[in-house]
What we know:
Blueprint: E1 2-3, H1 15-20, H2 32-49, E2 67-68, H3 72-75, E3 93-94, E4 98-103, H4 106-117, E5 122-125, H5 132-137, E6 145-148, H6 155-162, E7 168-172, H7 180-193, E8 196-200, E9 209-221, E10 238-250, E11 255-264, E12 274-277
Parallel strand pairs: 1-6, 4-8, 4-9, 5-6, 5-7, 7-8
Antiparallel strand pairs: 2-3, 9-10, 10-11, 11-12
Amino acid sequence: MSVLPLAHPNASQSDADALDEGGLPDRDGLPDGARADTLAQLRKRMAVLSGMPDRLSVDRVDEVGDRLPLPDVVADLLPHSNSRQHDARRGGIPRGSVIDCSGARSLVVAMIAAVSRSGGQVGIVGLPWLSLLSVAEMGADLARIAIVPDPGVDPIEIASVLLDGMDLVVLGLRGVDVAPARCRVVSGRVRQQSSALLVVDGHWPGAQVRMEASVLTYRHVPGTSGADLSAARRGHGRIGGLRLQVTATGRDRRRRSADVDLSSLSAQGQAGLVGLTRPEEPVVGRPDDQISADDQMLTAVAN
């Protein structure tokens, strides 16, 4: 994992020295020339972090592929292309597209983990609530994730820079509605760089897909695998999983919806990990002592 620090709005007079030492000055109050230098410096630092200082961007995953991988249960909800690769790539995030995501945060965490686990480079801008433990529990490759924890007053500009070298850029808007004119400019850059932009906690006019996730119910352990919190004894046990309703709406206004479980992946041969899977029928009468440790490990995944 890489953390790309940016200067705070109350930057001191030592900004010039910070540049010489590899830091970045604040963009507020700078003339256009200095601002361009700041962006160029950020690109250089991205290249150094990738281990290729002579290049502007890092290696992309599977350049010939037109979609970034997602968990199957989520990928099936996204609009499918009619290309020859459709059979080999069911759904996924189309390169050059913008996805607007809202609701339960476990969906965003799962998408980040899926892309990085498959070898993709992921840039995350302005998501202070993101737990790296949650991402790791879902199997992410933290070495392929770059985070800008404090993007300053213009996170959209920082995200547009990261599009140069990332397969997926996740942008937290913190409830802001972006002007359509600026959306068109950034969306054009997404297409030009063959990247994908995932917008969270905001509104992005012209997004190809809008996704929403809501929590339907929580699973309680100890108890049967289908036990709901309403049946749990007060002060006893813990949350062992949850069920989401995920909805994807394309530009054709068609809504695709599915129930998704967030639970252990041990049954799929991925011991120690959790992820989004298709719901399973409750196992009635399953004894408490047969619940595996993996069923009780959901300690960090955000709702």
